[in-house]
Specification:
Elements (H helix, E strand, L loop, with lengths): L6 H12 L14 H15 L16 H8 L27 H17 L8 E2 L3 E2 L2 H18 L3
Antiparallel strand pairs: 1-2
Length: 153
Amino acid sequence: MKTLARYDDQAEILLRLRALRPESVRRWGRMSVHEMVCHLSDSFRMVLGQKPVCPAPRRLQRTMIKWIALYLPLPWPAGILKTTPELDQELGGTRPIDFAADVAELEALLSLVTTHRRDFGGQSHPIFGRMSEAAWLRWAYLHMDHHLRQFSA
């Protein structure tokens, strides 16, 4: 299973991220490539406790769906879960400004999450609830993979 806990998986994600261009066209969804970069940055800010998010009300998602999403060896399908408003660039998410600067910010946040091991137990995912460091780093890989596939990267 791929995870941002492993250097090779981080390197793969960074290579794919650096292949994005401002004119990259989405295969699904409504975000532009630039909005997606800011969305991923906001998701890392959530992991780091820098961007609070409200939890989803359904308890079932915190158990069965979390296990399916994190450990079933299938890519995440498009449009299955709605983005929380705090991480939606059209609502409460960070607005895109400069593509190169926003990609550099995402790389810096990725590095911060992966190089400074810490207890992520204090942070809650809006759908999956509290997760271990290993689960957060697995989720982060899958989340980035999902959105990079959205733009064929």
